[in-house]
Amino acid sequence: MAKIKHNNFIDTVDTVFSSAKDQGLLHLHAEGTYLNGRTIKIKGSEMLHFGTTGYLGLEQDKRLKEAAINAINNYGTQFPLSKTYLSHPLYAELESKIELMYNIQPIITKNSTLGHMAIIPTLIRDEDAVILDHQAHWSVQNACQILKLRGIPVEMIRHNNLEMLEDKIRMLSGKSGKIWYMADGVYSMYGDYAPVQDLLNLSRKYPQFHLYFDDVHGMSWKGKNGTGFIFDAIGTLEENIVVVSTLSKTFGASGATFFCSDRKLREKIKTFGGPLTFSAQLEPASVAAAIASCDIHLSEEIYEHQAELAKKTAHFSTLLSNSSLPLVSENDSPVFFLGMGTPATAYNFTKRLFSEGFYLNLGIYPAVPIKNTGIRITISAHNQIKDITELARAMDYHFQKAVEETGSSNEKIRQAFRMDISTKRTSKKQQSELLNIEKQTSIKNINKQEWNKHLGTHNILDWGGMLYLEKTFSNSQDQTNKWDFFYYIIRDQKMQVVLMTFCTFGIWKDDMLSTESVSRHLEEIRKTDAMHMTSKVLSIGSLFTEGQHCYIDESHSLAEQSLRLLLNKLEESYNSLGADMLILRDFEPGFHWDEMIRNQGYFRIDMPESCVIENKNWPSIDNYGSLLSTRSRQHFNREIVPYEKFYDVQIKDCLNQAELERAYELYCNVKDRNLAINTFSYSREVFENMNSCPNWEFIILTLNNSAEKDFIGIMFCYKNSGIVYVPELIGMDYNAGEGFNLYRQLLYQTIKRARELQIPRIDFGISANFEKKKLGASIKPKVAYVQARDNYAMELMQTLQNETNIPRLSS
């Protein structure tokens, strides 16, 4: 009954990436016949390169190049054979030299992504469990999906949240063998670190706790022999720690390495680790380049490289600390992330730097939350001190310009990244003096006629309907049914309404629009932890209503400015309320200001479609079938009309106490069964207030000639001023109605009642589109725009969706 179209995560990512591509900032091509590391040519312009992950610049070292050339001449471009059978002649030397660097035998893989896919399914046993840092690299998270096929628990925590991590350890400790925590050593976007010493302390406290580190961004520029951040931090590789590192990026070659102190485990992975067995081995040129790099790492020269890079990194850090630029994470890594807040500011800033001759990377959703869009700058050995100084100067100048041109501020950006705002630089005020915004917290303070003119013709949004919502949800004792209301009216200087809307602030389930399988999984947890995976949400409209919640006079010359002003005010409320998410809903696809909203730090998602019947000239009910398509008419004549005779239909304005209890029971039947749109159940107060409100009425169906004395179906309907009829909620006795097409009959009796009242529009709500369409409903697609503090909840929902869709292997 409640099947809905769920939003596709890939579509959301594609929308964000497409916007950046259209701006000319992603999927670019380097040009020219020669690369030197310091500069790069893009679209005919020579630019200083601040986007590499080859931090020591070894990929341009003459010795590595010559070694690769000689290997091709001696051994060919590749050695097309699985390494399980036979390694080409250079492999043994590479393995020997890496062992000298680490004092541990390595496993060498084609790259780190294939390495994780080879290692993780072999390393993790069926009795084990996994906890992921939600910013762990995609390749690690993707490899962990394989574990779910075997029923291995894979949990996720917020980034570097040790309290949450310890809670997960306690939860898993009684029912798991080893508990593996998977994290990056140096995180690729912000350049921040895993809290290694704290993690080691946890491993001592909980003997089951094991650590899996991906340290590809910590390699070479840190540690003895350039063995990386993690080895520098841990000293000795204990049996409860494994590390994946790289021969690419800073190392200057290709491939990845795996280290563990358990010899048997190492041999098991090497003997049969998926891609290690079935994938091609590293090309001779890559192995030869890696050997040449090993020679550098095993000499004193590596420390000269590290010192030179550290000098340049420190210089850049000093320049940034003397500016007003919002550096998100202060540390000594060569990765820097400047917060821009909105995509619009990031696009503007990046294009400004491009035009000045500086290439740097855009950091955008899903790598970071959409409101935490920013710029990733990497410092390498190729960069000269004067280049770095000039970059810092250009960034400081253009940052303020970009902020002002996109209507942002240093304060807003720092707030988005939860940074100290005491040192902010004041930017020009963007609010137009041509518009005035009025904010109210009750519909009682708003003129009834004015409200009804602009928003009151939709759903249950007339003045009386809003009064019902406030009475029902403002003072609820149940926190899951308690909402704060905010009304915004924006007028021009002539006091003409340009924009009008209302918002609610309350608790939502994070899986509200996830698949039913995800919600079933989470509802089991909520039996003991009712608030598990919930968020505080500030949203246009409310969970009780759907349709047009925001009126904008699109013909007005200040329409776009009014929307920008609203977004600014909503963001202020979002921050002051401490909300986790900010949601703008329900807009039609192709909304006029779609791009502007997305560039202000929102991503667009598909909402469940609405079902609407509109008919200004109702025919006689006997001829209703004539309005339907041939196929729908056949359904109507076969599945609807013949079953009407089994029911006694009553329309009631008020229910007695026994009827109200029965109505609530039937509502709960439907709610408990319907997880396609997973909201909190409404309290009895919702229905008691309906009973005392003159705009509500109840369509009640009782079986004729049945031992069942109570009614078995009820539709809770709102009459909006003779304009809209809204069957808001439904209740059914599934057992008693079996075989009598109860749901379809409730839909049909709702249509008959709207015709009887001569109300030209029925808002049939969301879900069960197929059934409603067969009765003449039009399907109206809707979109929403979402902003979140972080990606944790969304990424976890996606992970759970993947997990619940995986077919289980039989034992």
What this model shows, in words?
Residues 631-772 form the BioF2-like acetyltransferase domain. Its cofactor is pyridoxal 5'-phosphate. This is 7-keto-8-aminopelargonate synthetase. Keywords: Transferase. With 811 residues, this protein is of the alpha+beta class. Strands 15, 16, 17, 18, 19, 20, 21, 22, 23, 24, 25, 26 and 27 form a 13-stranded mixed beta sheet that branches. The protein has 27 helices and 27 strands. Among the domains are: 32-59 and 302-416, Alpha-Beta Complex (Aspartate Aminotransferase, domain 1); 76-297, 3-Layer(aba) Sandwich (Aspartate Aminotransferase, domain 2); 611-782, Gcn5-related N-acetyltransferase (GNAT) (Aminopeptidase, 3-Layer(aba) Sandwich), CATH 3.40.630.30.
Strand-helix topology:
Elements: H1 9-22, E1 30-31, E2 39-42, E3 45-49, H2 62-75, H3 91-102, E4 107-109, H4 112-123, E5 129-133, H5 138-148, E6 154-157, H6 162-173, E7 179-184, H7 196-205, E8 209-214, H8 229-234, E9 241-246, E10 256-259, H9 263-271, H10 275-278, H11 284-297, H12 301-321, E11 335-341, H13 343-356, E12 358-359, E13 361-363, E14 373-378, H14 385-405, H15 410-416, E15 435-440, H16 448-454, H17 463-473, E16 484-492, E17 497-509, H18 516-526, E18 534-540, E19 550-552, H19 559-577, E20 581-587, H20 594-599, E21 603-614, H21 630-640, E22 647-652, H22 657-673, H23 684-691, E23 696-703, E24 713-720, E25 724-732, H24 734-737, H25 742-756, E26 761-766, H26 769-774, E27 778-788, H27 792-804
Parallel strand pairs: 3-12, 5-6, 5-7, 7-8, 8-9, 18-20, 25-26
Antiparallel strand pairs: 1-2, 2-3, 4-10, 9-10, 11-14, 13-14, 15-16, 16-17, 17-18, 17-19, 20-27, 21-26, 21-27, 22-23, 23-24, 24-25
